[in-house]
Specification:
Radius of gyration of chain B: 20 Å
Strand order of the largest sheet of chain A: 6-7-8-3-9-10
Largest interface: A-B, 29 and 24 residues
Shape of chain A: elongated
Number of helices of chain B: 14
Structural class of chain A: alpha/beta
Largest sheet of chain B: none
Helix content of chain A: 25-40%
Order of helices and strands of chain A: HEEEHEEHEHHHEHEHEEHEHEEHEH
Largest sheet of chain A: 6 strands, mixed
Strand content of chain A: 25-35%
CATH superfamily of the largest domain in chain A: P-loop containing nucleotide triphosphate hydrolases
Order of helices and strands of chain B: HHHHHHHHHHHHHH
Shape of chain B: flat
Helix content of chain B: over 70%
Oligomer: heterodimer
Chain lengths: 335, 288
């Protein structure tokens, strides 16, 4: 997880306010009553399984789709009522980079800058800046159709940067890339996040965990979590579980553990592989790390602690737990 | 709009489409001029252009087929929607790019009456007015074919739709001539037109309710009027067919030298109407 380093003054500002967003395609409701706020100077992750409504939400924010209900305010501009002003605040890279393959990156980026209304004297500077950040200068005169997928993605990100938007929205920016390209694109997103607000959507949990300060989890068109990464992990881990193997008899080990303040439950975990040892699952309150106390309590009884590790819910487990809850709620609503 | 115009014009000029279109247009007009004027000895350059209009039936749909359909196919239509541009600017940028490609051969053709002048007496006013009308006729057809291109993401279907609708417009006066001028024929003719309009509405919206409403909006009032008074229907459909054909107005000028203000208004209303429809069709994606 990255650490935020933006000033408090800019962080207080809400760049995007999504209120009660609903989008219905024919009979299918893609997103329903989705609300969240995006603050300045962070990397936001929109996480959800396939079909959760991530792309629909992003397309509505970017002005490519109109909502059935609800509003999206971007820097105070309503995307439906003041689309031109609202879109000037955003750079958007859809899931498939919208490239004209008969152009070179230089020609394409110049065209996008013109289309975004960048003034003539700034076009060259902004295009060069975007190409420098995305490392495209070496291929600027090659036709886009001849570029690798990774470079095409860079061209897509470069076009999103033009016009100096306050927010860049990237829909599944690493899909279909090889591991090397994924690493490069993630590094690029991290660099962008140091300067402006970035929203990325992904169903790759490790990507969100690695890049984002804040995560919004969507499941079946509903927001099931909207928290800073650290807070989300803390909220989802109301108690800490320790797994430990001790050279002791089970009753003795239980007695010692029960004597340590903060220990809630002790359970034996199957048969221990080594003779004379016992493996236990110990749950404690999450506020305090009891590993030191437990170690010294065991040592006082001359029980040797062979191993002790703290087990926390990974983002993957949090995600699965939240999306399962989302599905359950929806099922209950339907019933 | 200018950015889109430049990008589209560049796309036509950087591949074979634009150049082929200009070359074939010039070839056709040149051949007709050779046949009627240089070979046939006629001093009227407008005769050559009058027969050249048939080539537009194929050439313009091919020029226009990629205009909107290619964006749909490559998903770049979503990109345009995400830019701080009005949809009308995008559609107009594309429209004027195609019009520029068409205007280039028209500009070259302007030299032909001067060349003919070297061989005899040419009515230059009539010749240049016919070239201007040839340009306006093309502008009308480009708008129609651009709209057809906005209905599909398949370039071939876009071209075929363009050819079919252009052919209907070309042969409408012939059909009008063959039809009896009874009230029932006019009524049935308008109902068929309403149904065709509903089919276009279906292609544009993929929505059965909109299709049904479009058909009903024309057929129901038409039926009521027909039940109340049949007299006004007599000969109305053939007259309408003859009037709406842009080709008929152009041919009338080329062959008889007459051209009315109504004809000019009709020819100019084609681009206005169909560019408007194309904007609606492109914007529809946002509401899908």
């Amino acid at each position: 997880m990255r650490g935020g380093s933006k000033s408090i003054q800019t962080e207080d500002k809400h760049l995007i306010e999504v209120q009660n967003l609903t989008k219905v395609y024919g009979q299918k409701t893609a997103v329903e009553n989705v609300s969240f706020k995006i603050r300045n100077g962070r990397i936001y992750g929109l996480l959800g399984p396939n079909g959760a409504g991530k792309s629909t939400t992003m397309n509505i924010i970017a002005g490519c789709l109109s909502p059935t209900e609800g509003t999206v305010l971007i820097n105070g501009y309503d995307i439906c009522d003041q689309p031109i002003e609202a879109k000037r605040q955003i750079g958007y890279l859809p899931e498939l980079p919208p490239l004209f393959t008969d152009m070179t990156p230089l020609e394409y980026l110049t065209f996008v800058a013109e289309a975004k209304g960048v003034t003539d004297e700034l076009i060259d500077r902004q295009v060069k800046e975007a190409m420098t950040v995305t490392d495209l200068l070496g291929v600027k005169d090659r036709l886009i159709r001849n570029l690798s997928k990774g470079f095409r993605q860079r061209v897509g990100i470069a076009q999103a940067m033009l016009g100096k938007p306050d927010i860049i929205i990237l829909d599944e920016p690493t899909v279909g890339l090889d591991p090397q390209q994924i690493t490069e694109i993630r590094a690029l997103i991290r660099r962008l996040g140091e300067k402006i607000t970035v929203i990325i959507s992904s169903h790759i949990l490790s990507e969100i965990a690695e890049l984002c300060d804040h995560v919004i989890i969507l499941s079946e068109g509903h927001v099931v979590a909207d928290d800073d990464m650290a807070e989300l992990e803390a909220r989802m881990n109301p108690e800490t579980t320790l797994r430990m193997t001790v050279k002791a008899d089970e009753d003795g080990a239980r007695r010692v553990l029960k004597s340590v303040e903060g220990v809630r439950t002790v359970t034996k975990e199957g048969e221990s592989a080594e003779e004379g040892t016992v493996t236990l699952q110990v749950t404690t309150t999450s506020e305090t790390d009891l590993r030191d106390e437990i170690f010294f309590a065991m040592a006082a009884e001359r029980y040797a602690v062979i191993s002790m590790e703290q087990q926390e819910q990974s983002l993957e487990e949090i995600f699965l737990s939240l999306t399962a809850k989302g599905s359950k709620h929806k099922k209950e609503d339907n019933d | 709009m200018f950015a889109v115009y430049k990008r589209e014009l560049r796309a036509y000029m950087h591949n074979v489409y634009g150049w082929l279109f200009m070359a074939v247009t010039l070839l056709v007009v040149g051949f007709m001029m050779f046949t009627y004027n240089l070979g046939g000895g006629m001093p009227n350059f407008e005769y050559a252009l009058s027969d050249s209009q048939y080539a537009l039936l194929i050439l313009i749909p091919i020029l226009c087929m990629r205009s909107m359909a290619e964006d749909k196919r490559n998903r770049t239509d979503m990109f345009y929607l995400s830019l701080p541009l009005k949809t009308s600017s995008v559609v107009l940028g594309k429209y004027f790019a195609m019009l520029t490609v068409y205007a280039v051969p028209c500009l070259v053709i302007c030299a032909y009456p001067l060349i003919l002048g070297g061989f005899g007496t040419v009515n230059h006013l009539s010749a240049y007015l016919s070239i201007l009308l040839f340009l306006i006729l093309g502008a009308a057809l480009i708008a129609v074919c651009q709209f057809m291109s906005s209905l599909t993401d398949n370039l071939v279907i876009a071209a075929v739709l363009g050819v079919v609708v252009s052919a209907l417009l070309l042969f409408a006066p012939v059909l009008a001539y063959k039809l009896p001028d009874t009230a029932i024929v006019s009524f049935v003719g308008f109902v068929v037109l309403a149904l065709l309009l509903a089919v276009v509405a279906f292609f544009a919206t993929r929505n059965l309710n909109v299709t049904a409403i479009t058909a009903a909006a024309v057929v129901v009032p038409l039926s009521v009027i027909y039940i109340l008074a049949q007299e006004p229907f007599k000969g109305l459909f053939p007259a309408t067919l003859e009037f709406v054909s842009p080709f008929a107005h152009f041919a009338t000028f080329c062959q008889f030298g007459t051209f009315s203000v109504q004809s000019l208004i009709l020819l100019l209303s084609y681009p206005v109407l169909f560019v408007f429809l194309t904007v609606q069709s492109a914007d529809k994606k946002r509401w899908d």
